[in-house]
Amino acid sequence: MNLLVALAIERNGQVRDLVLGAHGDRARLLKVLVGSEVHAEVETRIADLVEASRAAIADVPISPSWQEELAAMTRQITTGTGEPMTLLEKIEGPKTSSGGLIDEYSQAV
């Protein structure tokens, strides 16, 4: 489970029912998550952490090639490709993965 779903389950009964219910409705869950304040909070948190990691990398006394490599990794945090991950991919999992957060959470419960 990721931070978005964990916080939303904790703060929003509708999300909790959709994730924990026997017949999860992914489209409805996506709509509820996109409309929630938790989504914006988590996106801001991720952006802040990525920016902090980039700043830390710039301050490390290592070769420029390693700094570039580590900076590239920060761009790959969400999808592994450097492309931004859509909210649907965050819920269902990247196109290259099997399962996703809903499946992962359901199996853990």
Automatic annotation (TrEMBL):
Residues 82-109 are annotated as: Disordered. This is Uncharacterized protein. It comes from Dactylosporangium sucinum.
